[in-house]
Amino acid sequence: MKCAIIKDLLPVYCDGLASDETKEEVEKHLAECEECRNICKSMKEAVPEIQKPDIKPMKKIKNLLRLRTFLLLIVVLGIALWLPYNFLCANPVLANSESISYEYDSLKCPDHYDYYLNDRSPTKAGENRCFALDIPNGSEFVIDKENNCVWLDGKKAEAGTDNGKTIYVPADGKLIKGGILRLYVKCDTVFNAIRYEYEKYPTMNTFVPTEATLSLRPCLPFRQDMNQCLDVENNTFRAEFYALECGEGATFTIKCRDKDIVIDLHELAVKEGILSE
Q1: Which helix H or strand E contains 113, and what residues bound it?
Q2: Which among 43, 50, 87, 264 would be 20 to 30 A from 229, CA to CA?
Q3: H-assigned helices in 47-176
Q4: Rounded to whole angstroms, how far apart are CA atoms 273 and 266?
């Protein structure tokens, strides 16, 4: 093989890229030709030695990526566990209005009447207290607005004493038949418990109509939550309202996820006969 052809093949031969047949022919020629042998030697010496890369920084980056991936998996797993616990145990959502029903009845006292009034006397300025008088059935009871007092069986009704002085019941009160309106709220759910939150404002024995609110939240029971849960076998919430609390405008609201259920307590009290129109 001619030297010109060998010189063209030497770069491929020196890089180790030549085929076995080409390599064999080149080596035969180099064994006989000193000039080509020197050229091949100089080519091999000119090729710089390739240093092995330092892979330590890459290992650090790889380990860091693995650590970040592991931490991300922990966060995702934590969220996956926290969300069901939060919505099914810790902070369950409100029940849907379609799952809630209610019934009502009354506890009536046919031989009993109450006289309620707000105490707005000068000695009680700024207060909004109430007195209640038990008035047995058949008793003679008169509200005397002219003398600002009430008479019970021919005697002025006493409200108490103030510094040794007798205080008589004033005539700005209201006579109401004794009775209690009772509501039974039930929630049908597949959950084992129902978390409830009940608010009732204002307190009993005021002339301001009651505005009570109930929230029912079906949930999975845990020991720390059971004091706030209704047992699924007895999942009926019972609320009681005295006749005085069922004045015009009194409401009982059940908070629901889709829409609130608003019950007119005055209307129910009239239906049950513990209040008049």
Answers
A1: strand 100-119
A2: 264
A3: 56-85
A4: 11
User: Hey, what amino acid is at 258?
Assistant: D
Q: Which long-range contacts (CB under 8 A, 24 or more apart) does 190-193 make?
A: 190/218, 191/88, 191/92, 191/218, 191/219, 191/220, 191/232, 192/220, 192/221, 192/232, 193/218, 193/219, 193/220, 193/221, 193/225, 193/226, 193/229, 193/230, 193/231, 193/232
Q: Cα 207–208–214 angle (5° rounding)?
A: 130
- CB-CB contact of 123 with 178 (8 Å): no
User: 156-159, long-range: CB within 8 Å, 24+ apart, which pairs?
Assistant: 157/115, 157/133, 159/119, 159/131
pLDDT tens column, 143-176? 888 988 888 889 988 877 888 888 888 887 777 7
**Is 124's pLDDT higher than 60?**
no
Helix residue ranges, H only, the chain: 3-14, 20-32, 34-46, 56-85, 265-271
Residues sharing a CB contact under 8 Å with residue 129, sequence separation 6 or more, in sequence order: 118, 119
Q: If we measure between CA atoms, which residue out of 220, 227, 228, 217 comes closest to residue 88? A: 220
Q: How far from each other are the two terminal CA atoms of the chain, in whole angstroms?
A: 127
